[in-house]
Amino acid sequence: MTPVSLPFRRLAAIVAGTLTIACGGTEAADTAEATPLPLSAREFDGAAAMGYVRRQMAFGPRVPGTAAHRATGDWLVAELRSRADTVIVQAWTHTTADGQRLPMRNILARINPTATRRVLYLAHWDSRPIAEKAVDAVAQTQPTPGANDGASGVAILLGVADALKRQPATVGVDLLFVDGEDWGDFDTLTDVLIGSRYFVANLPAGFAPEFGVLFDMVGKADAQFLYETYSMRAAPDVIQRVWSTAQRLGYGAYFPTREYQPITDDHLPFIEKGFKVIDVIDLNYAYHHTPQDTEDKVSQETLQAVGDVAVAVLRGL
């Protein structure tokens, strides 16, 4: 993901629009927070989510075309089949601009698949083949570990699946793990967001979420998730729903009610397709696209906060 914007037709109109969030006094809630959820009231298990981060890291960098990527995908499918009602795997070969053929998999876990009212949660599960922001020139050619950038979002979705397995949701929930987000060149927008672009071009039957939330880079200690600009313009009501839930739970320090900037990420193909999908992301991360994006940079407390909000949004529907 990157702050550079995609040249999608609708996005220019979205960003140029005058939509605003009906905050209803949530600015003051940043400093006057509720008490955080007591342990006994938490459905989301932050310790388990941290374990899911470590499990992904144990495979090695999840770069498409590698053994680690294949093993991680197999593990995800197996884990989701034990939690979800239906698991759909989209498998295809993506040919890159320079002629490489990459095996790709999107994994969609459907919970309560017959429900007509549905919510989409998504994250990317691949990691980047190069660490171009590394200081050392040799390190720049190596893959990134992808602990915060990838594994943290996957951990949130798995933790949500755990919570819904213990107590089913009244709405339908689609958990989508997209591949190939981080492969290519974000400056030229070549071979990036591969899985999300493929998914919106090949929608499964009956896919019609009321709204969606992308979780990306959601594990940094003391993270601050600000309003991402495309999200705010395309789905201000979803921003309001998520951020007000965070305020109610006492997580206003993680979810300040302020705008950040437009970010190229996996929500954009969905917005272009007409879906209301927002991005929960903290791109202000010193180890982004470096070899130091390791599991010690991921905070269980942050995962707990984000996971609590994710589950509470579903329970509030």
UniProtKB/TrEMBL annotation:
A molecular-function term among this protein's GO annotations: zinc ion binding
Signal peptide annotation: 1-28
Residue ranges occupied by any Peptidase M28 domain in the UniProt entry: 106-313
* Pfam annotation, one family: Peptidase_M28
What are the alphabetically sorted keywords of the record?
Acyltransferase, Signal, Transferase
Q: Which SUPFAM superfamilies match?
A: Zn-dependent exopeptidases (SSF53187)
**Entry's PANTHER family?**
GLUTAMINYL-PEPTIDE CYCLOTRANSFERASE, GLUTAMINYL-PEPTIDE CYCLOTRANSFERASE-RELATED
Under what name is this protein listed?
M28 family peptidase
